[in-house]
Design goal:
By secondary structure, the protein is an alpha+beta fold. It contains four helices and eight strands; from the N terminus they run E-H-E-H-E-E-H-E-H-E-E-E. The mean pLDDT is 94.
Length: 170
């Protein structure tokens, strides 16, 4: 069962990459109606609460961890609200280690159902519209960096995603 309310950790991008991704997201959302959310890749969660001990551990972890390079596979979509239209990210050793290190700070569901992606639109959209849209989008860079880890309060029932705090990776 999907947990719709809690806290998640997102990976955020440096300004240049964020600008490029936001331009693409704007094009996608001009064709596929979507609630607003910051451009991100989900790293970990859900957490039912976040305490000061975990905040301090995460801050120190980020300060001592390098930025991570994501390998981009391309555009894709599913018939799922929160994976309606997205950029697929290869599940790499760096990403797996990042998740495992965060798990050691504060346990979360580290199961095999992690599907790394950068969402461009949430919602229920027609398959044909999504297929057509892919052909109209720009070519993607093969790699994109994560430069920050953010703690995000989420209530999917209300379409609410709020970054509470973010930490720069070293």
């Amino acid at each position: 069962m999907r947990i719709s309310k809690g806290y998640w950790l997102w990976g955020l991008f440096p300004s240049k990459e964020e600008y490029f991704l936001n331009e693409i997201k704007a094009k996608v959302q001009s064709k596929l109606e979507s609630p607003f959310f910051e451009t991100h890749i989900t790293i970990a969660g859900p957490f039912f609460n976040i305490d000061d001990i975990f905040l301090n551990k995460l801050k120190n972890f980020a300060k001592n961890s390098p930025s991570i390079v994501l390998n981009i596979c391309g555009y894709d979509f599913k018939q799922e609200i929160f994976r309606s239209f997205y950029i697929t990210v290869k599940k790499s050793l760096c990403l797996t280690e990042l998740r495992r290190n965060i798990y050691e700070l504060n346990n979360f569901d580290l199961g095999n159902n992690y599907y790394p992606h950068i969402s461009l639109s949430y919602g229920n959209h027609e398959i044909e519209t999504k297929k057509d849209l892919i052909s109209k989008l720009p070519e993607l860079n093969e790699q994109i960096r994560i430069s920050k880890i953010a703690i995000v309060e989420v209530n999917e029932d209300l379409n609410f995603w709020k970054i509470i705090e973010s930490f720069d990776l070293n």
